[in-house]
Structure formats: C-alpha cells, structure tokens
Automatic annotation (TrEMBL):
This is MoaF-like domain-containing protein. It comes from the Bacteria. Residues 8-92 form the MoaF-like domain. It comes from Enterococcus malodoratus ATCC 43197.
Amino acid sequence: MKQHPLEGKTAIIKFDSGLQFRIDFLEEKQLRWTSIRKEDEGATDVEKIHIEEYPGGIYSVDWVEESGLCVSYTIDTKNEFVKSFMTFTDDSYRGGRRPFTHEGTFQFVLDDGQSDTASE
C-alpha cells in the first residue's frame, strides 16, 4: 500500500534560478533528488519527506537536508508548476537563516525521460 499519492512517480523540475532536478518519490515517505544541470550533474541524496495532498492536484512536499537546508515545494501537477521556498544558515539574516525562492516547471516522466501523460 502506498504511503503517499506520489510514491513510485518520477518528475523533472526546471527552476527559473537554473537549478534542475530529477525527483523520484520513493517508499517510506522518501524522495531522491538528483541534479540534472551540467554544473553539478549527478549530485544526489535521499530525503525523508512530509507530504500533504490538496484538491486539484496540489501537493506540499517538505524536508530538511543533512546540511540544515530546509526545502518546501508547492506542486501543481495539473498546471505542471512548482514553487520552492528554502532556507539555509546565514548569520547575516534574521534568525540566522537566509530565504531563497524560485519557481519553474514540474513534469511527471517515465524511466526513459519521456512525459508520463498517464500521471497528468
């Protein structure tokens, strides 16, 4: 039995900031992100996630990385859109955390990278 509705799905995210990821939604409420941009291609890690589903194909996916980076995605699967809010340690900012936001495209894909139209 799936622990969350995105389990077993894969997506490609391309942010306006230039960051690009392959996201694999795994069992045990985990997510594997893998960078697909040339500068850091192949960088990857598995994160324990908190996920909430809302009406209309909207999801909130949140996690804290080992480095302390906090990541929150709001994903609109019907419109293939994602917005991210992240914070990381920076003592020059209030509370010692620097915020960073970016947005971009979110597309479900098959293992071969082709669009997964059945997920839409």
